[in-house]
Amino acid sequence: MPDSPLDLADLPAIEGDVLDDEPALAAAARDWGHIVQARPRAVVRAASAADVAAVVEFAAARGVPVAPRGAGHSPFGQCQADGGIVLDLTGLARVHGGEGDTLVVDAGARWQRVLGATLPRGLTPPVLTDYLELTVGGTLSVGGLGGASHHHGAQTDTITELEVVTGTGELVRCSAEHHSDLFDAVRAGLGQCGIITRATVRLRPARQRARRRQLYYDSLGTFLADARTVVKDGRFDYVEGQLILDDDSGTWRHMLEATSYFSLPHDLDEAALLGDLADDRDAAESEEMTYHGFLDRMADGETVLREEGSWFHPHPWLNVFLPDDEVADVVTETLAATEGADLGDSGLVMLYPIRADRLSTPLLRVPSSELVWLFALLRTGRPYDPEGVARMIRLNAELAERVRPLGGTVYPVNSMPMTPHDWKDHFGGAWDALETAKRTYDPHGVLTPGQGVFAPG
Ligand SMILES: Cc1cc2nc3c(=O)[nH]c(=O)nc-3n(C[C@H](O)[C@H](O)[C@H](O)COP(=O)(O)OP(=O)(O)OC[C@H]3O[C@@H](n4cnc5c(N)ncnc54)[C@H](O)[C@@H]3O)c2cc1C
């Protein structure tokens, strides 16, 4: 809570809007997780980086917490500010073009919009998340992973420059060459040291089409072996995996999603790509679509989930990274203990490997292992069932605790309480640099309280 009551009349004049009506405050008190609710005193819809700078300077002088908010798809209050100011960045969404193989874009733009600007140039961001309606600033604040991460790392590894408003309201451009401490503190920095207002994204050539294959395995061991092979040799452009529970038999199937991009008239050599893989070939599925259609494949799923309502239900999600030599044991044990009710009706389990040598963002903490596995239990709770949701959150905390001594880490888009002590453990060798950057760039401790990384100033 702020040092003193916030008088909105004192806010500096800005181009955007200052809102304190009930619908605006109620919307900013929620997020996609539908678990945590913290009501701000005001919502500011920023129209420019200057707006962001003015509001943060104002808040810093008064010790008022400020939470930047992109698409609000956080699962556990990460974009909320109890009694403070939520800075809605979705109006800061211009695409500014770019030279050669780069694109400069405002941080409130959704990746869907970014792709819409790059594809006509025959270019694409190297890594996209599975869902394109997340904002640039929102995913760069956590890392941003997808099926192309085994080639190109996290989205934070594909950024060449950022424009950032620090916790004192200063507008700074940073990159690996200039203010590199700030660059390293904001990429996957959970909004602790600055609010990203603009990003320069490195692009690569886009192909026109995608062939998506879903390869099924009865045995976890065979699935893991094939996933390792294809990620190490890089034969596919995109690799992810899902573990699917058959509710009737209680058994799990393992699905490797392996996609290749290509442009006509060239075709793909399926025999060479699939010949040595040990999946149940009779069960394999393959479909072809446009490159954009593949990347935007969650759009149909979103429509269905919205219609059936579960899009608006609680989402007690857990994402952890596992080292390669522990993945088989941890996943076997976890699946054996997981029933349909632990995931919820539209719940999903994902598992895929990423080459650690492609990940270079200092604050994205991953196990020391040649391959790291993203293991995600994307649970959906029932509405009006706080005990059920609390149980799912407990399961999350137990699994995160179980993997820690094995060298596992969390990918921090989770529904699970984390204390500053937990965060210090999590950041490990990167903690000192983050703490120093926090003192330097957010000396009043006002930025992004919902992450709980630092004790309230
Ligand atoms: C359906 C769905 C699919 C997903 N798929 C993937 C996936 O494939 N890969 C993946 O890596 N993640 C995935 N995620 C997780 C997602 O990347 C994170 O939750 C992300 O932070 C959400 O972006 P957002 O724009 O909604 O951010 P918000 O929820 O608005 O904010 C997230 C955090 O970042 C801070 N923040 C927001 N904007 C800024 C900014 N400009 N500067 C500094 N801090 C900021 C907020 O205060 C908050 O702490 C998915 C989430 C959902 C709901």
Please write out the topology.
Elements: E1 17-19, H1 22-28, E2 42-45, H2 49-62, E3 66-69, E4 85-88, E5 102-106, H3 111-118, E6 123-124, H4 136-140, H5 149-152, E7 159-166, E8 171-175, H6 180-186, E9 194-202, E10 204-205, E11 209-217, H7 220-233, E12 238-246, E13 251-262, H8 270-274, E14 285-290, H9 291-295, H10 298-308, E15 317-323, H11 324-336, H12 340-343, E16 348-355, E17 371-378, H13 386-403, E18 409-410, H14 420-427, H15 431-441
Parallel strand pairs: 2-4, 3-4
Antiparallel strand pairs: 1-2, 5-9, 6-10, 7-8, 7-9, 11-13, 11-14, 12-13, 12-16, 15-17, 15-18, 16-17
The structure holds flavin-adenine dinucleotide (FAD).
CATH class of the largest domain: Alpha Beta
Q: What molecules are bound to this protein? A: flavin-adenine dinucleotide
Q: Percentage of helical residues?
A: 25-40%
**Extended strand count:** 18
Number of helices: 15
- How much is the radius of gyration in Å? 22 Å
| Proper CATH architecture of the largest domain | 3-Layer(aba) Sandwich
Strand order of the largest sheet: 14-11-13-12-16-17-15-18
What fold name stands as the CATH topology of the largest domain? Answer: Vanillyl-alcohol Oxidase, Chain A, domain 3
Q: What is the name of the CATH superfamily of the largest domain? A: FAD-linked oxidases, C-terminal domain
**End-to-end span in angstroms?**
10 Å
The averaged pLDDT comes out at: 96
Strand content: 15-25%
Number of domains: 3
Name the structural class.
alpha+beta
Question: How does the major sheet shape up?
Answer: 8 strands, antiparallel
GO molecular function: cytokinin dehydrogenase activity; FAD binding
Organism: Prauserella muralis
Pfam families: Cytokin-bind (PF09265), FAD_binding_4 (PF01565)
Keywords: FAD, Flavoprotein, Oxidoreductase
